Amino acid sequence: MLNDLKIAFFGTPGFAVSILDELDKSGIKPDLIVTNPDEPKGRKLIITPPPVKIWAIKNNIPVIQPEKLSVSDFVSLKTFDLSIVAAYGKIIPEEILNLPKHGTLNVHPSLLPKYRGPSPLQSAILNGDTETGVSIMLLDKEMDHGPIIAQEKFALLNQLYLPELKEALAKVAGQMLIKIIPDWIVGKVRATPQDHSKATFCKKITTTEGLIDLSDPIKSDRVVRALNPDPGAYMMLGGKRVKILSGHIEGDSYMPERIIPEGKKEMAWEDFKKGNKI
Questions:
Q1: Mean pLDDT of 102-124
Q2: The domains spanning 2-198 and 207-276 adopt the same CATH topology
Q3: Are 19 and 105 in contact (CB under 8 A)?
Q4: DSSP for residue 238
Q5: Which of these CATH numbers, 3.30.470.20, 3.40.50.11030, 1.10.510.10, 3.40.50.170, describes 2-198?
Q6: Which CATH architecture has domain 207-276?
Q7: Rounded to two decimals, what is the model's pTM?
Q8: Helices 14-25/51-58 angle, 10° precision
């Protein structure tokens, strides 16, 4: 049944690619992929396609990258059974959400209504939560507000860094979609409204939030794990920024392990200390 469905997929970063990989393992390939436009990346600002576009081209799937979302550009979705959204990065107008026969499902990596917004996983790590999870919801016009179709909890272990957590939850999300979509299409499952009185919100993480103090080990550990690799955790030494990629708590201090000094390549913290007499 899944192979016969006509599905559109909206997504942009690696998290969305991991979900697509899980769907593909079960023989599910979208008929259309919508992603963000190519953007300049790196120090040389080289125009680079988003990961989802690369995946679409590799898998011979039509891909579009609209700057703005206009309903007139998505009339074809009326012939689709379903749309799926995972870390797309743009607000999708309600008119477009409602075009497919069975609406638009969204993957959100939190246990909604907790952590509505753009940084649920970073917020969970920063706040020292012991669990997080994935919510599959029916999208409506408000942010992360729609009714819940399914949720699955995930133990948030202290040693997990953000990229590892994203990868793990993307796999969970992909498996959830594989199980849920057939029942959703035939009406065997219903969406349950969220308890909006319990909603909490998270904001976009800024570079300034990455500054750490090694004498505050618990906070430093959380910031390094939550903000790795972007925008990154860092400390200031001699007026220069030292990006911290990994580390551990040692007694009453946080000990970096791998770092990138400003203007230099990645290196071991111990090697940096020797060269700088720290």
A1: 97
A2: no
A3: no
A4: T
A5: 3.40.50.170
A6: Roll (3.10)
A7: 0.93
A8: 30
Question: What local confidence, expressed as pLDDT, does residue 182 receive?
Answer: 92
Residue 2 has pLDDT above 70, yes or no: no
Domains in the chain: boundaries = 2-198, 207-276
